[in-house]
Amino acid sequence: MAKQKVVIGISVKDQKARAKAFKIAVSLSGVDSACIQDEKGQLEVVGEVDAVALANQLRKRLGQAELVSVGSAEKKDETPKPQSVTFTYDPNNSYHHAIPYPYYPYPVVQDESGQCSVM
Fold this sequence. Notes:
Layout (H helix, E strand, L loop, with lengths): L3 E7 L4 H13 L3 E7 L4 E6 L3 H12 L2 E8 L47
Antiparallel strand pairs: 1-3, 1-4, 2-3
Helix pairs in contact: 1-2
């Protein structure tokens, strides 16, 4: 199992609930670091931890916990590297075009009476 970052939404009402959530998070095996963001109401845990087991533990002891995201813990390079593309034009190269579809006109047949034959 690789290191992953687990974000769980919790309702932190007071300092006691915050300490309880933090204690639950760090008590699981495989946790490398944990932090609580009070303004967002989220608990972030980094390590080789089972996200569902952690969410269930928090739900059981705190009453409310919502699994927000689970992802890789490695930081990714946010700025994509520009790729250079070069086009070369060779005037000696002959380009092959599709052969046009032959057009065969259909003969228009008119009856000699000049009236519509449908009616």
